[in-house]
Structures are given as C-alpha cells and as structure tokens.
UniProtKB/TrEMBL annotation:
Organism listed in the record: Cricetulus griseus
Similarity comment text for this entry: Belongs to the serpin family.
SMART domains: SERPIN
Name of this protein: Serine protease inhibitor A3N
Name of one Pfam family that matches: Serpin
Domain of life where this protein originates: Eukaryota
MF GO annotations: serine-type endopeptidase inhibitor activity
Serpin domain ranges (all copies): 56-417, 479-779
Amino acid sequence: MALLVTLGLLMAGICPAILCQQEGTLGRNTELQEDWKNGTKVDSLTMASINTDFAFSLYKELVLKNPDKNIVFSPFSISFALAFLSLGASSNTMEEILEGLKFNLTETPEADIHRGFGHLLHMLSQPEDQVQISTGSAIFVEKHLRILAEFKEKARALYQAEASLADFQQPHETKKLINDYVSKQTQGKIKELISDLDIQTVMVLVNYIFFKGKWEMAFDPLDTFESEFHLDNKTTVMVPMMNIEDLTTPSFRDEELSCSVVELKYTGNASALFILPDEGKMQQLEASLQPETLRRWKDSLKPRLINKLYLPKFCISTDYSLENILPQLGIREVFSTLADLSGITGDKNLMVSQVVHKAVLDVAETGTEAAAATGVSISFRSRKWLPMTVYLDRPFLMIVFDTNTQIALFMAKITNPKRRTEKMALCVAFVLLVAVFCPAVLCQPDGTLGKETTAQEDQNNGTQVDSLNLASINTDFAFSLYKELALKNPDKNIVFSPFSISFALAVLSLGASSNTLKEILRGLKFNLTETPEADIHRGFGHLLHMLSQPGDQVKISTGSAIFVEKRLPILAEFKEKARALYQAEASSTDFQQPHEAKKLINDYVSKNTHGKIKELISDLDDSALMVLVNYIYFKGKWKTPFDPDSTFESDFYLDNNRTVRVPMMKLKFLTTPYFRDEELSCSVVELKYTGNASALFILPDEGKMQQLEASLQPETLRKWKKSLRPRMIDELRLPKFSISTDDSMEGILSKLGIREVFSSQADLSGITGDKDLMVSKVN
C-alpha cells in the first residue's frame, strides 16, 4: 500500500462528531473572551508542526487497527473538534485533551491555543478564486438542556460555532437534521455522518472541512489507461492510471527512508505531497513519521523534470469510531464517568460517548476532492530539458512579493546596477536580499486630519478587504506610481515600496474628511462605492497582522509611528484609531528643537531598518508639527543561492551603445518558474526565497522597456503569475547590486489625484479637531 499524505490540503468533506450524554462536564470560569482580544497566540507555523505531530501519531494508531486498508482522515478537523470540546473541559480532562493534541501546556497557555485555532480558522476562511476550502463547526443541543451563556459565547467568538436546539427525544428527526447540515456543508460528499443516536445523547458537536482544488498541471483524461497497481509482491489489481509527461515539479529522493517524495500543486495556495516507499519499506517509513521528517522533506524538495509520472485515479471513503483510538493518545477521562465538562451546563453530568469521523477522497485528472492517504505509482526516468539561458544584463524590473498575502512589498527598475544615490536601499547579493523603505508625511498648519467615525468598533464587527483583493489594489497603485516615477526619472534606477507608501497614506486618511479623504483613498486605487472606508482600514490591519507573523526563514518587519509636537493637542480618538487599526503609537516631540527632533526620528528609523536608512529626515521646516513614519524591512535568503566563487565581471548593456562593467552572479541548471510573454516581448523569471517570499524579474527584449512599462496593469501581473511554469534554465545571470533612491513624493502623488491634502483646502481635522493642518512634504 502506498502512502499519500496531504494533511488537510486536498478537497474533503470530513466531519468528526462528538456525542455527549449524561455523566461528565464541559466548561469553567476563564477569561478567554477578553484574552482573545488582548493576548498572544500559537503562530501558524508552530500550529502546523503540532498538528503534524498529532496527525502522524493518529495515523500510526489507525494503521495498527486497520492493517492493509486505505486510510483517509483530516487531522485538522479532528483536532479542531477536540480543541472546541476542550473549551468546556476542566482539570485533568482538559489537560488530557490538549496534551493528546500534542500541545505542551507548560510552554503554551490554554488561551493561546484557542487563539491559535481561531487565527488558523480565519486564514482558512479567506476567499480564494482557485482553491475552495470551507470549514465550520456547529453544536446541536437537546432543547431542554440549559447551556451556559459563557460557553456559547466562547464557542462563537473563538470557533465561530453556533448552538442549535434539537429534540433528541425524536432521534430520527434529530439525526436527519444533523446529517442534512453536514451533507449541505460538504456538498453531498458525506451524506450520513450519524447513523444512530443513543437515547441518552443530549448534544452533538460537529466539525466539517471541505476542499476542492484543480491541479496546476492537469492530467489529460485521454491519457488515462487501465494498469496494474501492486498491493504487495504477489497481488495486483487493475486501476485507471493517469499519467503526465515531462513534468517539472518539486521532488526529493530520501535515501535514508528509502522513499520518493513528489509535490503536485493546485492552482492557488494548496499542494499535495505524495510519498512512495520502495518495495517492502512501508512499515519502515510509517515508523519514521515525525514532524521533523515532514520538515526535512519540505526543505529538500527541489523542482526536477520527471519524464513520466503515473498516479491512479481513485475515490475512497472511510468511517472511524475514534473513542477507542484517542485513549491510545492519552485522551481517556473524557470518555469516563470522571469527565469534567462542567463548562457546558455548569454541572458535572456530561461525558463523551462517541467520536465519529468520516472522510471521502476523490482524485481525478482535473484535481482533487477530499483529504487522505492512499496508493500511488510514480516512475522517474531520464532527466531532460531544452537548453535555455536567461541573462539579466540589460535594464529589467524586479518585484518582491510576500507569497502568503501576495502583496508587492517592493518594486524596482534596474537601469544601471552601478549607479547609487542615498536613502532608500534595495540590496541584492549572492545569498540575500535586504530592502527597506520609509515614507514620511510632515504636517504643518493649514489643513485637518480626522472625522466622526467609528472605525474602532467597525474593526470588531465589520468585514474587510480580503488579502488577494488588497494585493490587486496595491498592485494597481504600485504600477501607477511606478509610471509616474519612470516619467520623472528616465533612464534612472527606481526603487520603492508600494506597500509602505500606501500604508502611510492610509494611516494619514484616518484623520482626513470630505474630499481630502476621498482623494487619498481613490489615489490608492480603492473604489469607495464598492468598498466602505472602514473595510479598507480593516483590510490594512489584517495585512499588517499577516506580515507580522514570525518566520524563521524570511524576516519582514513593518511599523508606523507618529511624532507629534508636544504642545499640539491630538484627539484621543485619532490616537486610539491609529493604535487599534495600524499599531501606530504617537510620541510627544519638541519640534522647537529641530535638531533633536530630527535625531529622534532618524534614530527610530535607523534602528527599525537595521541601519539601512540612517537619515530619513534631512531637515525639518520651522512650521512642521507632526511627522508620520512607516518603515518596512525585508531580509531573505535565496532558496537556491548563487555561488560567490562563480561571480565574475561582465558587461551590463545600458542601451544599444553603452555598457558598464558589473559583478555578474550566475547559476547553472536552475529549475524555476519562468514565462515568455511574446505579446509584451519580455521574459519573466521568479526566484524564490526560503520561506514565504519571492522576487519576480521582468526582462524586456532590447528596446522594449517603454512598451513594457506602458502595459503594466494588475491584469498583466495576474497573467504572468498564472502563466509561470517551472522550467530548466541552462544558465541564469543576474547582476550583484546595491542601489538606492530618494524622491519627494508630493508632486508625484498629485499626479495620482491626491492634491487637496497638500493645499490650504486640506481637511485633516481628525488629528486636532481643527482645520489647521496640511501636508507639506512626503519623502
């Protein structure tokens, strides 16, 4: 039997149900709701590692109980349902559940665990055009049972789970109610989660997850044929076998565990990992499954050309009663009369009688419907590629993305790798890229910044611009700003951070009213008819939250600060909104001492950009009363680093007639996403960093830079990203460079429609309550 591990990344209708009956309890007096808003949480990467530990432990128990059988389950769904149950557990019952889920309660407080699951639920709930992932929870409660308001509120606030009354004295109708709910949410994939209800059952807790994804490189149905699948050394069965030729995809040969690992990607943010052990090595592989094993595989995956890949087309389903398996992981008391689940009703009269888990997995030519593990057949033969070279030895564009949010963090045009000015630096070297950018908005009398809104309350209750939509809007702003900078600085290097500029202007707009407000947000490319202002601020807040997630491999730090003349009375509402929505603190500053004020601001920026920007402010106008600063700092290592010993002096072609000598890095036989855009006469290459970031290099054909620049639209970027495919590049050359630029942005922003804020008509009254401020300078 071959193993397919997907860990919740495949399209699935998977529902564990926890049935509770008299004898036990679920709840206690904690301050989780308040902690939810104020505390910390388990970050996404740690949560994924812990969930992998639970997944592999549960998998091993399922294998022991079901030898030589297909196994399909969703570790996410099971752990989510049990964590939800633990909201009402106390004492040893609660500890057993969370420790059984592999949390270390000495290192991680319970409240942080629930916040971690809440954040994970929030990230999975982000709308996505290409991959469909939906998950949710529900509680069906006997209508005569008194549920504590605190438990219901915690369930709603932390797990978005609503309680529904049901008449468990009518088991047939209640069973139908629950099964209809699950069938609807899993799009008919799981029609009967509950087959029978015990007469003592008074509550059913349900969690479902549904996944649907299309392969990035689909199999052709016409190529599917009947072929043998080897159950063991002696037994085979005939199955429909899909196959695809000349596929470049991440793979790894693990000689230590005698297995091959292949990653197949879906369109969007999902992928499936296939692990094929050598003949007779399945048990050795299963015994070695640990979170470290998965980390090693992921770190070792590299794009390789597979001459032919074979994968069976299949649809399998499983049905588990987990109450006999979970005790093997240490979760015992909750199934006994000692269960303490008093947080549900306030009395110790509940225990868990049954945990039901059903799963369905459907793998076909177009994609996947389910989450699971089953057999694969993969054939690796000769490596082959068509020779291709990419030399970035003439002017090109570069865009750095955060791949989780798809936000363009930095954009650059390199016309001469040797030319330098000062202030904003983008440094690309053989193993890392360091980039920082800080726009500063200086305000002086004549204008205003503020209005009567309820953005803080909206932050808790409303919607937001989702990450992908915000990324598209930010791209529109980035390209519009780029075109203005290119017009102003022909044949010069251009480096800027569209994210940082838009973020600073969005903070400023918190205090803007009337036409001033509209101009700023429209200049940032928001459609105020479609998107209310409050949703825009929540979108930036969510983006800030996602970029602030700790990462071991890529370092992205961003922040804002407001330096205010100490005699200027700033409205408490403005300060509170800036803090709540943008994590921006106001600092009292003596602008009557311009040298000291300038040093204070520059030291703050220098510290947060690790010394990359030492002097953001070169001088302060006598009338300046406030400086609003945003910084972003990025440091990443190339996933495939350049060898410093291979760097050599080479020509960079400024135009048809002029060259300069530059240090040129090079890589041979690199497999990386590539696209040749014949319509725009350019080549697009993506180089990835270790972690969630990548850089896009756009190299126009000779004499085609202006044509390319004129065509820059969000649709252009979407087309490039959609068209990128892993290709073997015979040789890639990229100049080693460190460049910087310094622009006053007020004239350029006016070209984008942001004008009034720089005039005496500016309405920025939300800062002081009076119309006496205007923006004098944007750096």
